[in-house]
Design brief:
alpha+beta, Transferase(Phosphotransferase), domain 1, 6-stranded antiparallel beta sheet, 3-stranded antiparallel beta sheet, 11 strands, globular, kinase, nucleotide-binding
Length: about 350
């Protein structure tokens, strides 16, 4: 591994993961003497514009919120763009869903409320994420029961919410979570992120994706089909979720929630309704299930860096390594796994 500090500042300590688009490294910030994750995106024919990646990462670095992974610095050079970000303990939501398939309603609500709080902070500053999905929703481990604290990462395709359309033939985002206007390459604003939150919430509650399948079928379903009502897809769910998700997944942005705060209020309304109508015994059972959920991955710790699962339990260390590159592949002996 190259031992020359990246940008003359970040001393590489270990490889977290690698894939077709680049690699993620654990590094020591020589100026501030702290560990960070460094995402390197290599220059390649037909690949992303490195100057754009660095510029958008610097834009994301203006965000400071408990539910957003902090970007410390970014830059680009002849061969790659680099992004320095937090190294945190936990796992991505995608790993939790792959293991448990669905969450208890209160857990799903708590998770989405944290996600909406982070997005509301970004939206208030004119930044639209455009790639909200479980692989980019990190669950930082803490002492509280439940899956962990939400940290939204990987603002790699984020943009100021200025209504710009995408170049024809270009898709920015991940298909299964893209809003109809993203699929069509039209101008997007913060309501595209709220659509994606709706898709995430649907999967958390039902254990299935609202719009499943491969390309190009998933795009056709996003544009022309309505997902099954969650209370029908997963009997036993509170029917209040049907209205919340119908509005979040409205094909027209104008018919969706006006902002993250409005969607959060609707989610809280369902939770309040459940609390008001549930029998005391039922509430107790839900609380016991929430408190008995094991820590993410059943491990003592691990490292997160901006989005996407790249690690399993390291033998002898009990660590789970998560990093901010899409579609990463593992290296032998570390138990790294690919990311959706």
């Amino acid at each position: 591994m190259d031992t020359v500090p990246i940008a003359g500042r970040f001393a590489v300590r270990d490889l977290i993961g690698q894939g077709a688009s680049g690699i993620v490294l654990e590094a020591l910030d020589l100026r501030l003497r702290r560990l960070v994750a460094i995402k390197l995106v290599h220059r390649r024919p037909g690949g992303p514009d490195l100057a754009r990646i660095a510029a958008e990462a610097r834009m994301a670095a203006r965000l400071s919120h408990p539910h957003i992974v902090t970007v410390h610095d970014a830059g680009d050079g002849p061969d790659y763009a680099w992004i320095a970000m937090d190294l945190v303990i936990g796992e991505p939501l995608s790993a939790l869903l792959a293991r448990d398939r669905r969450l208890a309603q209160q857990e799903a609500a708590a998770l989405v409320l944290q996600l909406l709080a982070g997005l509301g902070h970004a939206h208030a500053r004119g930044i639209v994420h455009r790639d909200v999905k479980p692989a980019n929703i990190l669950l930082a481990m803490d002492a509280a029961p439940g899956p962990g604290q939400v940290r939204l990462g990987d603002f790699g395709v984020a943009r100021m919410g200025n209504g710009e359309a995408t170049e024809p033939g270009t898709l920015l985002g991940t298909p299964a979570w893209m809003a109809p206007e993203q699929v069509r390459g039209e101008a997007v604003d913060h309501r595209a992120d709220l659509w994606a939150v709706g898709v995430v919430l649907y999967e958390c509650l039902t254990g299935r994706r609202a719009f499943a399948g491969g390309m190009p079928g998933v795009l056709t379903r996003i544009l022309g089909e309505e997902p099954q009502a969650p209370s029908l897809a997963a009997p036993g769910l509170d029917p209040g979720w049907d209205a919340v998700l119908a509005q979040a997944l409205a094909k027209s942005p104008e018919a969706r929630f006006a902002d993250a705060g409005g969607m959060a209020a609707a989610v809280r309304g369902v939770v309040a309704g459940m609390a008001a109508t549930a029998a005391p015994r039922g509430l107790g059972a839900l609380a016991v299930r929430a408190q008995s959920r094991p820590a993410p991955g059943g491990l003592a710790g691990g490292a997160l860096a901006g989005g996407g699962l790249v690690g399993g339990g390291l033998a002898g260390l009990g660590r789970r390594v998560v990093a901010g590159v899409s579609a990463l592949a593992g290296r032998p002996g570390v138990g790294l796994a690919p990311v959706a």
